Amino acid sequence: MDSFYWKEQNGLKLLVSRDLEAAGFVNGFSTRLGGVSPFPRDDLNLAGYGEDTDENIEENRRRFLEFFDNGYSISTVWQVHGDTVKSVRNEEDALATEDRADALAADLGDLLVGVKTADCVPVLIGDPETGAYAAVHAGWRGTLQRIAEKAVAKLSSEFGSDPSRLIAAIGPAACGRNYEVGPEVVEAFGGEFSTGGKYFSPTAGGHALVDLHLANKDQLVRAGVSDDAVSIAPYCTMERTDLFFSYRKEKSLHGRTGRLLSVIGRA
Description:
Elements: E1 4-9, E2 12-17, H1 18-22, E3 25-30, E4 33-37, H2 54-65, E5 73-75, E6 85-88, H3 91-95, E7 103-106, E8 111-117, E9 121-126, E10 133-138, H4 140-144, H5 147-159, E11 167-170, E12 180-181, H6 183-192, E13 200-202, E14 208-210, H7 212-222, E15 230-232, H8 247-254, E16 260-266
Parallel strand pairs: 5-8, 6-7, 11-15
Antiparallel strand pairs: 1-2, 2-3, 3-16, 7-10, 8-16, 9-10, 9-11, 12-14, 13-14
């Protein structure tokens, strides 16, 4: 946990990357605590998906933003489990929250970019030299399409980042001890990645447990980020439903679940 610490206020709890903060970036991975949503009660659901009211989400986001002191707004996208990285260069880009993408990159001073998750892997990236930053949503489909690598490439090509300078934090997600996938996913990874097998622990019937934390760290390193500049939060969303939403654990039980929000911006 040396690379992360907890920030708490008014019943809310935020996991913060020390490395990104030291590099000049406000950041945080939300939890489910301290909100007004009925998932089943008092939960901090930060995205809609037709499972919550706009009023609840607006109030939850207002509370969440109290962690950040400088009048930030949040820009998100309509996530589609793809590999598109959206550049946010102005207010018009920031307000276009219906754009289909699964990562955002920006260098604006008063904006947090954020991705929504409930088992998928959130990745936050910052460049201490240029002040550019990115937030990435990587489920197994996005990981297979190398979205973390593509976010690094976007920071490099459009924001002038040198990948070797970047700092990255990988947040809470379904971990390799619990996240089971079918043979079609195992086969797809094996065909796309020469080292695909190292991410899997076979179970039964061609199924396997998959470590998307490791897969995304490897992508960042392959894209030029230093190995020691990538930290992984030691939390599994499927194990810690007291702290985090888990689609896999909760959808089958309750028919719905909330969404976490992982954000980054310039301090």
